[in-house]
Amino acid sequence: MMKHPDETIDHGRRAWFGLAAGVTAAVAAPGVILQIASADPDPAPVTAAARWGLLIDTNKCAAGCRDCVDACDRENGLDRQSKPPSQSPAAWTDQKAVWVRKVKLADDLTGRVTNLPLMCQHCEHPPCVDVCPTGASFKRADGIVVVDRHICIGCRYCMMACPYQARSFVHEPMHDQLTQVPRGKGCVESCNLCVSRRDHGLASTACADACAAAGKGAIVFGDLKDPASPISLALRAMPSRQLREDLALNTGVRYAGV
Would you list the domain boundaries of the chain? Predict the structure, then answer.
């Protein structure tokens, strides 16, 4: 399968993400809510100068807390989903889009239970990209793994390839969408590290901001390539690991206390 260099992809697709995030005035399509962006998107192409990632300290992640999940839902319009009248609650729970979910890991030997948020791990070598037949799943030069909904054909190969079950499929027509996060029926989607914020020069993610506002500070976002960034300093100060280290994917999301 032919692969596209990161730089080539970014030059071609930054315009699409910038347009989605930076609309200030336009004719609204039915069911779409236009929002005023605080600033125009950065016109410069994405480069490999930074690699964005998360460090999650599970020792600070409380059982039952959903602040990061709820913040992600609000940021990306997932809180606007509604169950189709004909669908059972159980089927809706299985099918509704979820970009961040809280999971529990139990140690079989000690019985210790660890709570953590699980999302797209933004792998350096993403299996979802390898299997995508159209190039809709791709990795930007800054390490963020995203889906271009315009060329996603809904085959869901990427969902099967993801070892973290981090992707969702949109089964129903979209209503009340946010312009900075366009979504569409028949497409796959997942955490994109708040890519619209990245392209507007904002410093954090919705999940990290919500966790900090709640006084927990379990999620640190930042540039993994910058040795002076908060995330790099935290990674040097405490042991951390990847989930499924055996796959050698070099994930951009790391966990402490696991």
Answer: 6-23+49-79+98-256
Residue with tokens 């950065």: 42
Task: Give pLDDT tens digits for 22-39.
Answer: 433 333 333 433 333 445
Please name the residues in contact with 194: beta carbons below 8 A apart, sequence gap of 6 or more: 75, 202, 204, 205, 206
Non-local CB neighbours of 119 within 8 Å, separated by 6+ positions: 72, 99, 100, 101, 164, 166, 190, 191, 207, 253
Write out residues in the chain with pLDDT < 50, as ranges. Answer: 1-38
What is the pLDDT at residue 39? Answer: 55
Question: How far is residue 199's CA from residue 212's CA, in Å, rounded to a whole number?
Answer: 22
Task: Read off the pTM.
Answer: 0.83
Scanning the structure block, which residue is given the tokens 């005023």? Answer: 36
Q: Are 173 and 186 in contact (CB under 8 A)?
A: no
State the residue for tokens 């300290």.
57
- So what's the pLDDT on residue 35? 39
What CATH number matches the domain at 6-23+49-79+98-256, 3.30.70.20, 2.120.10.30, 1.10.10.10, 3.90.1150.10?
3.30.70.20
Query: Please, what's the b/e burial string for 88-104 (b: 16 or more CB within 10 A of its CB; e: otherwise)?
Result: eeeeeeebbbbbbebee
Q: Which residues are within 8 A (CB) of 135 and not within 5 positions of it... i.e. 6 or more apart?
A: 4, 9, 148, 151
